[in-house]
Amino acid sequence: MSKFPKVVPWASTEEYMAAADSLYSPDLSERKRGVAIVKAWRVRGRLPVAIEATASLAEMCVADQEHRHGVSNNQLQHMYSMALIRFVNSIVDLEQKGVYAQSVAVLASRIGMPAWFVELRHAGTHEQIPSLATLRAACSQALLWLRDYYWSKQVRRLPTDTMAQVRDVFAQFVAACDQRQAAIAAVAAAAASRRSASKAGDVNGMSLAEAAFDSATAALSLLVGRLHADAVRLYVVPVLIESGFLVPSEKRLRAKFPDCVLPAALAETWSAPFLVFTSSWGETLFYEELLAGMVSALTPDSSEFGVFETGDGGLSTSHAATLVAWIRWILESHYVSEGTARSPAISIEDMLEGCLRNPSYYSRAVLRVVSDVDPVLKRNLKPFVEFMGKALAALVADEAKGAPAATKRLVTVSQSALQEEEALMQKRLDQLFGSKANHNGSMDVDSTAAMAPFATASTPESRPAAAQSRPAGGRWSYVSETAWVQCPIGARCDGSVPVLEWPAWIDDAPLHTTPA
């Protein structure tokens, strides 16, 4: 490691993350502010190419929204194309380190860049420029890719001084609360034993405890006042969900499955800090970030072969139960159902998405908590909760039988079940079209009139001979096993290409018919 510190254009971690939030803000003026900050950084020194690319793409989005009616579509296409070409080239060139140059596609796949970005770059450079709608979508996807592959990963590499300071202040507050509780318990014990509570020892102990508590609360307020709102996600929430803070170090003081009821003493301890947090950062921001952090800790990223695990290997059961209890407490105290007259104080969409994307024992517990709090969502979440329960039961059964992890199958479909499903689909098709399939498996679908607008796009002369010999009537048919051959995606087995384009009149057709 170099002994010399690395010089960066930003003054602090908070400024760095504030610029990132501005660049990705849905507010146009805030996004312009983020672009201006990056321009100021560019004057101070050299910037990472990812920041340059993010600012260029964000500036292009701003220009599109501000001058949409004053710039032609052709000009916007060229501007978007240049921004996307620069984005791909600048990111991919960083991986060009060998003696022999490698293709852009190979380098892009190495860093996880979607292949269609490379294809879009090639089209914009050597072929016809893509449509404006495609370029706008590509710009949005490129910004999301930069956020996932650069900005979010930089958070883990940022200096930990601020987090250490947050941890120290929170630890001081917890210690002061414990001291205060011990002093209160001593006074209560003295009263129960009918001793005088005015003795010097009791008074002195209570005074010291109150002074320590006031000092810790003041230090907490001072720290919160100096932190940017981004610090909630970066420092405050990660420290709060550690053991020793929202989750007590002693397991006997934690919540337990399956009830997940938060101890009243724990809620009372953190009521004052929560008031400080919400007064400084707002109730919505703080509680939504806290919920997101808790769900992230409870629901590890699942993969194709590793779903339905019990949870994070480093998270104990009592720790997880306490986090679920905190989620219940937050929702019961600050969440308003969509079915009520008032608008919800906090949104739980991201929390639900995290649970549904990463099914586990703990995510199922969170969904059950949401179902208890919100009767409207309970009906929608019931199938997911039941499916997770059955899948987890099957997983436990496989583990009890000693099945290897690599051969576990939570859902198995037999050949007979597939045949029954196919027969059911055939029956529904017969009911839908009013006629039954013939013995060859072809379905008598009278679609001649429906396909009339498409007939002009393909003439008999342009079709292969096999296509011209197809029975008329517009019926679809199953291909027999002997006649089936490999063919490109989108083509029929006889080599013909069906006409799949919508007729022009559909673009101008009204969505709903207006009564006369």
UniProtKB/TrEMBL annotation:
Pfam families membership: Las1
GO molecular function: endonuclease activity
GO biological process: maturation of 5.8S rRNA; maturation of LSU-rRNA
Name by which UniProt lists this protein: rRNA-processing protein las1
Primary gene name: LAS1
One GO CC term on file: preribosome, large subunit precursor
Superkingdom per UniProt: Eukaryota
